[in-house]
């Protein structure tokens, strides 16, 4: 049992095979894509592997501490930021191979022309608590 | 109310329902309902015979559920009356339940969830909290697992090794939620050891006790890891160690060595040393040789390299390490440790940083980062100090 983050990028991932931006899809293709994502999450829930799934707005702000008694500084968005996260799915699976298998399925979500996007997803293991047996 | 007593009754009550003709999945559901009811009712109205109470309530739940089901399907009359009690529940029921819940057709996570619920008597919510996953996910995992094993008949003997693997997984998960999974694994292994006479069951129980006895000393107040050599051995629980050693010795005397007994023997040698310096590393190396003969796990060979480094010096340890793939988890951490002991601090610092980058757990990452920082700070001081001695 190990948790993995399947990370989806708006920007910063290598180009997918079916590389047509979403705003050039037909409305039906968009609906089919959304349905696929929802079905995927439902399947994970039924298989007992779902932990969390969230989508993020593309625009946010950068915030930092600006010293005692001063409000935090906000800035951005910075268009030059290379990496832009679109959302994630957290899964709890029996091992890395299963995580890769599921990421592969998620990446097959249909895009333009109803064909799989072949989108690159980032698979990142969670750091866990140390095991009880140590030697 | 004694929650542990309540939970320890779970497998026996499921066994009674199954012997009265309930299928396993329905029996398990009914007993869960009865447990919830017990938690609600017992504090104000404790039963004289807790097990009898649970059987009665669980059976009633089962009958109600079966009736509802029956009504749904053309109102057949079935399970109308309570049958005469079957023979007294035996340890055999419990044992069969262990085998069923760890059945090889289940994935490890399903077997763990089902074991914790049906044998351990934990609720779905408790299991979900312990594993930091949503309750719905665990509920699905359990109902799928029950479907998978529904065709398995309870009267066939299972493989004890699969049960031990599941219990070991639970133990290793440690303590993350409101349920102490290590303590629960010890309880379930103890219960198993009472039901079946098997040296590897004893070996696993000994291994768990010998690790659990040292748990408190493994982490500092701030949550950081304390390496074995720096642990306050006064905090080790000597009673638990003595129990583990006794169980292990009895198992070893039967001359059917297995992986868990060998691992427990190594743990026992650590527990036996009054200080890190007095550890019998030569014997530990011998036990790693035994262990390597029982499994071809490269992790065992990695640990053996550490032991060789302690027994015969860091160079010997590094030689051992040279034959192992650098891809192995913790390879860089072991290499860093041995290089530092060999006096090569610069390499050690670099390897500690690399090991931190690849650490599988948060506590290890922080520990390894501190090790790298410690060496780098010392080297920086040295560079500033022309005498070079710190």
From TrEMBL, chain A:
<dbReference type="InterPro" id="IPR005545">
    <property type="entry name" value="YCII"/>
</dbReference>
<dbReference type="Pfam" id="PF03795">
    <property type="entry name" value="YCII"/>
</dbReference>
<feature type="domain" description="YCII-related">
    <location>
        <begin position="5"/>
        <end position="107"/>
    </location>
</feature>
<dbReference type="InterPro" id="IPR011008">
    <property type="entry name" value="Dimeric_a/b-barrel"/>
</dbReference>
<protein>
    <recommendedName>
        <fullName>YCII-related domain-containing protein</fullName>
    </recommendedName>
</protein>
<comment type="similarity">
    <text>Belongs to the YciI family.</text>
</comment>
UniProtKB/TrEMBL annotation, chain B:
<dbReference type="Pfam" id="PF20239">
    <property type="entry name" value="DUF6596"/>
</dbReference>
<dbReference type="GO" id="GO:0016987">
    <property type="term" value="F:sigma factor activity"/>
</dbReference>
<comment type="similarity">
    <text>Belongs to the sigma-70 factor family. ECF subfamily.</text>
</comment>
<feature type="domain" description="DUF6596">
    <location>
        <begin position="161"/>
        <end position="251"/>
    </location>
</feature>
<feature type="compositionally biased region" description="Basic and acidic residues">
    <location>
        <begin position="70"/>
        <end position="81"/>
    </location>
</feature>
<feature type="region of interest" description="Disordered">
    <location>
        <begin position="70"/>
        <end position="90"/>
    </location>
</feature>
<dbReference type="Pfam" id="PF04542">
    <property type="entry name" value="Sigma70_r2"/>
</dbReference>
<feature type="domain" description="RNA polymerase sigma-70 region 2">
    <location>
        <begin position="6"/>
        <end position="70"/>
    </location>
</feature>
<dbReference type="Pfam" id="PF08281">
    <property type="entry name" value="Sigma70_r4_2"/>
</dbReference>
<protein>
    <submittedName>
        <fullName>RNA polymerase subunit sigma-24</fullName>
    </submittedName>
</protein>
<dbReference type="InterPro" id="IPR013324">
    <property type="entry name" value="RNA_pol_sigma_r3/r4-like"/>
</dbReference>
<keyword id="KW-0804">Transcription</keyword>
<dbReference type="InterPro" id="IPR013325">
    <property type="entry name" value="RNA_pol_sigma_r2"/>
</dbReference>
<keyword id="KW-0731">Sigma factor</keyword>
<dbReference type="InterPro" id="IPR007627">
    <property type="entry name" value="RNA_pol_sigma70_r2"/>
</dbReference>
<dbReference type="InterPro" id="IPR013249">
    <property type="entry name" value="RNA_pol_sigma70_r4_t2"/>
</dbReference>
<keyword id="KW-0805">Transcription regulation</keyword>
<feature type="domain" description="RNA polymerase sigma factor 70 region 4 type 2">
    <location>
        <begin position="98"/>
        <end position="148"/>
    </location>
</feature>
<dbReference type="InterPro" id="IPR046531">
    <property type="entry name" value="DUF6596"/>
</dbReference>
<dbReference type="InterPro" id="IPR036388">
    <property type="entry name" value="WH-like_DNA-bd_sf"/>
</dbReference>
